[in-house]
Design goal:
This protein is an all-beta fold. Helix content is 0%, strand content 41%.
């Protein structure tokens, strides 16, 4: 089976470079024409289990954030406010998680005052909340969230 691209006959195991549209053999790791490096498809991962200390928070006056406990960016926090936040590997996402275990558009977080929820965006590896894969889940302080290899906890900080 073959594709017809730009007047060329290309085997189905091939694809087109997203930068210069050059037909590329499926086994190549970079484009022979422009040099663009192919990062491949979203990779799979195994969920991890971590314990999070429970703390008491005043929800109305505390700022919501996601703290990365392990994996890439361990020790960093993503500060959130009221609104909708996209999470994914696409640099245009509000929370950019640069790792192949994260889908380009993995999840959406919605914060409305004291209420917060996370929704999966039909991602490859899913969105894990407190050790379970979910389509949608409420976020409360201490909720454990795993997206790809990013192990995080939802917090409210002063």
């Amino acid at each position: 089976m073959f594709w017809h691209l730009k007047g060329c006959i290309v085997p189905v195991s091939s694809f087109v470079c997203p930068i210069c549209n050059e037909p590329v053999d499926g086994s190549q790791t970079s484009c022979p024409r422009c040099g663009f490096k192919f990062v491949g498809a979203t990779q799979t991962f195994n969920p991890v289990a971590t314990q999070v200390d429970e703390q008491t928070y005043e929800l109305e006056s505390a700022t919501p954030e996601l703290e990365v406990l392990s994996g890439p960016y361990a020790g960093e926090s993503f500060t959130l406010g009221d609104g909708t936040f996209t999470v994914g590997r696409d640099p245009k996402c509000d929370i950019f998680l640069s790792n192949m275990t994260v889908s380009r558009h993995n999840s959406t977080i919605v914060i409305d005052g004291a209420h917060a929820k996370i929704m999966d965006a039909d991602s490859t590896n899913g969105t894990w909340v407190d050790g379970k894969i979910v389509d949608e889940a409420e976020l409360v302080p201490g909720t454990h969230v795993q997206i790809g290899t990013f192990d995080m906890v939802f917090k409210r900080v002063k």
